[in-house]
Amino acid sequence: MTLLCVLLLSANPNAPETWHRYEFQRIRMGIPVKISLYATDDDTAKHAAQAAFARFKQLDRILSDYDPDSELMQLCARAGSDRDIPVSQDLKVVLEHSLRVSRKTDGAFDVTVGPLVKLWRKARRKRQLPTAEALTEARAAVGYESVVLDAQSSKVRLIKPNMRLDLGGIAKGYTADQALGEMKKHGVSRALIDAGGDIVVGDPPPGKDGWRIGMAPLQKRDGPPSRFVTLKNAGIATSGDAWQFVEIDGQRYSHIIDRQTGYGLTERSSVTVIAADGITSDALASAVSVLGVERGLALIEKTCGTSALIVTLEEDQPVVHASKAFPADE
């Protein structure tokens, strides 16, 4: 765990605290997780960050679809068994939220796309499209309607054989929320957690209105931010194909899968969603990517406490579409 401390005096000259800025980074869930926080002493900062990273590690063992021993994969191994499987509180909460978003988006967000995701991971490695037969077989195992969750007993049944859940569109947001909660238990509420682009922020830095967050441009993934927003006590997530995609026979396919077609999205876009927490911003960013501009913005406008910015390419030029509540550029 790396640490950087920068002294920052409180904007209020009568305030007794002297704030310090600390930055930590570790690899969690296969990605760099960065934490920026403000505390009044080293021990408080270190203990809070350690607790946050420990929560990331704990949840990765529950929610990962890469680890065959994770709770999620153990549940999937029992798909089609006609058995109700007890699940942990964390997995239950994530599945509850996932199913709620699935119903709201008519399946544009669907954590049962795991069989299709597995095919497209192979496609990216081999740079070869899945066969029609493989797509048909995978699609037969997809459908959030075949996930039966009894929230009261915390039991889940996966009705179809070969179902495979993939929480890649929601797990990072939930985990960042949980990590921030752990930091607050250790006396740190002025914090930002960046989990591979899924960002959760708590109270603002001392003397500031919020955390200033830069949004990467659609066409240049390593370029300077194209826009800035200032947030506090919120989640912000961006979904798009800037980093994960494959080009096959001249066509670019995103890692984001449309369950209706079984294919990765082919229209270039970047979707940024702001919500009250990370689990909501993460899931809705994925859903809006699949829904497209018109239906995606309609979803956001009727979802309380959310806003979105969608950037598309038209004749190789970025076109910006924003919901009514999305913050103006700074």
TrEMBL record:
Reaction catalyzed: L-threonyl-[protein] + FAD = FMN-L-threonyl-[protein] + AMP + H(+)
Residues bound to Mg(2+): G169, D282, S286
Species the sequence originates in: Symmachiella macrocystis
Keywords in alphabetical order: FAD, Flavoprotein, Lipoprotein, Magnesium, Metal-binding, Transferase
Cofactor(s) required for function per UniProt: Mg(2+); Mn(2+)
GO MF, one annotated term: transferase activity
SUPFAM superfamilies found in the cross-reference section: ApbE-like
Pfam families noted in UniProt: ApbE
Cofactor: record remark: Magnesium. Can also use manganese.
EC id: 2.7.1.180
Keyword Lipoprotein: yes
Protein name (record): FAD:protein FMN transferase
Family: Belongs to the ApbE family.
Keyword Lipoprotein appears in the UniProt entry: yes
Recorded name of the encoding gene: apbE_1
